[in-house]
Amino acid sequence: MYSLVRRLLFLLPAEQAHHFTFVCLRLLMRLPFVKSLCKRLFVVEDPRLERAYWGIRFRNPIGLAAGFDKNALLLDVWEYFGFGFVEIGTVTPRPQAGNPRPRLFRLVSDRALINRMGFNNDGVDAIVERLKKRKSNIVIGGNIGKNKNTPNERAAEDYVMCFEKLFDYVDYFVVNVSSPNTPNLRELQEREPLKQLLGELQRRNVAKPQPKPILLKISPDLNEEQLKDVIEIVKQTGIAGIIATNTTIDRQGLRTPQEEVETLGAGGLSGAPLKGRSCEVLQLLRKYAGNGFPIVSVGGLMEPADVCRRLRSGADLVQLYTGFVYAGPALVKRSLKQLLREEN
């Protein structure tokens, strides 16, 4: 059935289809029978799927990645599509429109997306008000970033503001310094800026009566030495884990003609072409970080086999975005069913 829905949605420009889907879901999910139907169709409940990290219980290890519900508009919906957790954001202190449209594109032959959204969001205050009203108890992560016009030397102020305002309303935090769509943001991944930023957030965190996990989201475009540096900094600052990976600026190996890709312009690539690199980064992180260090893997998870392979390769949790766009909510259910079969 989703193949028909996708065919219709793909007649619309990508960002317009995304907003249209959100409008439909907000209307349909007000109807109790629709929630019941979705729960029957997409939810898998089994204690063997439960995970516990940082004192947080996850119903299952599959989450919705940041960027999909960045403005926390559907917080009470995602549990009915089988997700074990959802990450909102990237959230910035002040609202911002993001980059000019069009800024989201499908590469259908590659089962991929290119986006240069640019941290478009309603700002932390509006998002906090939505979080206050949520009814679902699904685990929620808060992905935080800086406003485009905030210089890097003052970036920590933006991250701290989002951290403080979101603290009472999310279960964990993600520091996003790896998006390719905010000018100079990736410079914050360099050793000294990253160490200072994470150190400041963690100092504030441990001063709280009940600190919350802070994770770092990294780029797939880091080399092996840079990944070693990241692990060292993460351990020095005492943050809780890593999310690997964000989108890539690499365009190698695509089926879509090069001239068509060049016409679309800059942006981060996600989906099937990222599968190999995201898995490679995961394996390198696990190699150098050792066991007992939580890693969330995201990027190129398009089939149940991809999900199972990541979890076997050292991921503790996984997140979907582009795979959810192309395969629909059945991907969550099929992946969880396969996980249960492999455990038997």
From TrEMBL:
Ligand binding (FMN): 66-70, 90, 143, 176, 217, 245, 271, 300, 321-322
Binding note for cofactor: Binds 1 FMN per subunit.
Where does it live in the cell?
Cell membrane; Membrane
Q: Which GO terms describe its cellular component?
A: cytoplasm; plasma membrane
State the pathway, as annotated in the record: Pyrimidine metabolism; UMP biosynthesis via de novo pathway; orotate from (S)-dihydroorotate (quinone route): step 1/1
Residues binding substrate are 70, 115-119, 176, 181, 246-247
Give the top-level enzyme category: oxidoreductase
Q: Which cofactor does it need?
A: FMN
Q: Which family does it belong to?
A: Belongs to the dihydroorotate dehydrogenase family. Type 2 subfamily.
- Protein's name according to its UniProt entry: Dihydroorotate dehydrogenase (quinone)
- Which species is this record about? Thermonema lapsum
